[in-house]
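Exercise 7. Given the encoded structure of a 463-residue chain, write a plausible sequence.
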C-alpha cells in the first residue's frame, strides 16, 4: 500500500510538471508569435522574426514606409532634397554598418555587376516608370498581330516575369538604394556598373537619372563598393559627345571615394567605361577618340580611361581592336543568343584579346526571360534550372581565366536576368515566376560562392 501511494504521488507530480512544461512552451510560442513581423512573407515560420537578418529586413521595411509617407510632398522638392535625405539616413546608421561590415563577405573588385536606376513609382516619382513597360511589337506585322498589345498596369501587373521582394519600387527611394547595396555586397561583388545617360537624356521608357549618381556613390561607399559607368546608346553618340561625357563624369564624380579605378598591368589607375551597343558606331569614329593619333584623342590626357566595347558578332572583335578600345564584354545572359554570349566561344575570344593586349570580360547571368515585354520572344528564354544555368555560366567563365567577370544583372527585371531578391506572387491576371524551392536570396548566395571560388583559382593562376 505504501509503495502504491508513493507511485501515485510520483505520477501526479510528473503530470503536474509535464503540464507546467507544456504551458511554458505554449507561452513562449505565443510570445514569439506576437514578435512576428507584420509584413512577414507567406510561409515564414513565426520564430524567424528573432533572427538578425529578419530583424534588419523589418527595420528596413519600416523605414521605407516612413520614407514613403514623408514623400507625399511636392515632386520637385523631393528630388532636390534626395541627396540630403540619403546623407542623413547614412549618418544615423554608422554603428550598424560597422557591424554589417564584419558580417558581410569582402567585396571582390573583379566581379562587376550591371545595375539600373530607371524604376519609379507614384510615391517618389509621381507615377510608375518602367514597371508599366509597354508590350513591344514584333517587327513583322503578321507575327505582331498574334500577340497582345498595350502596357502593364502596376503594382499588381508589372513588366517582368518575376516579382521583386521590394515591390514596384522607386530607384530614388534611399531605403531601396541601401537595400540594393547590401544585397550586392552580400553577394561579394565589388563594382557596380551603373546604367548611365547624359544629363537630360533617358531611354525611351524612362526619365533622366544622372541626378541619382551622387546618392548611389554615397551608399556604395558605405558598403565599400565601387561604381563605374555603363554608357548607353543615346541619340547622336559619337567621338565628340563621348569626349564631353567622359570629361563630365570624371570632373563631377571622379573625386568620390567610391568612383572605380582599375589598376592596369603597368600600374596606372584608370577609370573604366563600358560602352553598350558600341558596334552601332563605325570604328573610324571611335578611333578619333580612342587612339593616340585620333582627332579627338582622349589618350594621355587627364580623362584617359579603359573603354570596354560590347562584342555581339565575331567580326566585332576586329572592329573593337581597330577602334582603339581597351577590351570587350559580352553582356547578354543568353548562352547561344549571340556569338559573344555563347560560352563555347569564350576561349577563342580570350585568346584573341591576349594576343592583342585587350581585356576579355565575359558576362554571366542566371537565366533569361523577357516575354512580359516581348511576348513573341519565347525562343530566347533560358531556364534558370534552380541555379544550375548560372553556375554553368560561372564555370565557363573561370575556364578562360579572365581578369574581370561581369554579371548580367542585378536588377534588369524586364529581361529576367536579375539576381535581386524575388518572391512568389499570384494575381488575377498572372502567376509570376520565383526562385523556389530556394529562398529569395539564392542568386546572391550563388554569386558569393563563385566569387570566393574565383578568388582561390585566381591565386593559382598568378602562381
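Solution.
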Amino acid at each position: 500500500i505504501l509503495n502504491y501511494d508513493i507511485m501515485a504521488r510520483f505520477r501526479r507530480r510528473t503530470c503536474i510538471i509535464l503540464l507546467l512544461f507544456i504551458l511554458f512552451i505554449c507561452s513562449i510560442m505565443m510570445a514569439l508569435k506576437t514578435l512576428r513581423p507584420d509584413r512577414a512573407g507567406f510561409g515564414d515560420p513565426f520564430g524567424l522574426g528573432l533572427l538578425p537578418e529578419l530583424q534588419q529586413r523589418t527595420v528596413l521595411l519600416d523605414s521605407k514606409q516612413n520614407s514613403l509617407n514623408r514623400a507625399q510632398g511636392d515632386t520637385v522638392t523631393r528630388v532636390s532634397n534626395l541627396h540630403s535625405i540619403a546623407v542623413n539616413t547614412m549618418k544615423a546608421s554608422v554603428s550598424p554598418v560597422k557591424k554589417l561590415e564584419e558580417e558581410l563577405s569582402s567585396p571582390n573588385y573583379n566581379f562587376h555587376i550591371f545595375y539600373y536606376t530607371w524604376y519609379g513609382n507614384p510615391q517618389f516619382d509621381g507615377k510608375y516608370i518602367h514597371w508599366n513597360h509597354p508590350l513591344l511589337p514584333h517587327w513583322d506585322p503578321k507575327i505582331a498581330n498574334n500577340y497582345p498589345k498595350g502596357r502593364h498596369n502596376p503594382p499588381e501587373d508589372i513588366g517582368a516575369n518575376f516579382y521583386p521582394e521590394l515591390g514596384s519600387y522607386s530607384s530614388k527611394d534611399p531605403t531601396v538604394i541601401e537595400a540594393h547595396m547590401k544585397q550586392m555586397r552580400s553577394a561579394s561583388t565589388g563594382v557596380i556598373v551603373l546604367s548611365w545617360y547624359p544629363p537630360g537624356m533617358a531611354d525611351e521608357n524612362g526619365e533622366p537619372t544622372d541626378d541619382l549618381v551622387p546618392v548611389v556613390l554615397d551608399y556604395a561607399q558605405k558598403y565599400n563598393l565601387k561604381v563605374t559607368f555603363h554608357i548607353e546608346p543615346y541619340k547622336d553618340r559619337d567621338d565628340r559627345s563621348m569626349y564631353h561625357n567622359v570629361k563630365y563624369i570624371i570632373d563631377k564624380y571622379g573625386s568620390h571615394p567610391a568612383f572605380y579605378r582599375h589598376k592596369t598591368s603597368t600600374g596606372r589607375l584608370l577609370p573604366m567605361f563600358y560602352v553598350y551597343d558600341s558596334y552601332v558606331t563605325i570604328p573610324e569614329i571611335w578611333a578619333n577618340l580612342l587612339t593616340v593619333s585620333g582627332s579627338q584623342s582622349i589618350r594621355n590626357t587627364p580623362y584617359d580611361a579603359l573603354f570596354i566595347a560590347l562584342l555581339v558578332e565575331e567580326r566585332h572583335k576586329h572592329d573593337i581592336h581597330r577602334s582603339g578600345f581597351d577590351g570587350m564584354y559580352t553582356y547578354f545572359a543568353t548562352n547561344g543568343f549571340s556569338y559573344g554570349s555563347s560560352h563555347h566561344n569564350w576561349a577563342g575570344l580570350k585568346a584573341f584579346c591576349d594576343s592583342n593586349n585587350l581585356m576579355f570580360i565575359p558576362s554571366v547571368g542566371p537565366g533569361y526571360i523577357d516575354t512580359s515585354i516581348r511576348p513573341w520572344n519565347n525562343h530566347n528564354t533560358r531556364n534558370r534550372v534552380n541555379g544550375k544555368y548560372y553556375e554553368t555560366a560561372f564555370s565557363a567563365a573561370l575556364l578562360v581565366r579572365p581578369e574581370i567577370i561581369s554579371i548580367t544583372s542585378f536588377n534588369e527585371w524586364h529581361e529576367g536576368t536579375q539576381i535581386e531578391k524575388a518572391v512568389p506572387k499570384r494575381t488575377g491576371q498572372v502567376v509570376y515566376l520565383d526562385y523556389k524551392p530556394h529562398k529569395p536570396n539564392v542568386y546572391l548566395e550563388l554569386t558569393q560562392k563563385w566569387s570566393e571560388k574565383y578568388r582561390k583559382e585566381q591565386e593559382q593562376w598568378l602562381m
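Remark. Residues 30-79 have pLDDT under 50 and may be disordered. Students should compare their own answers with the one above.
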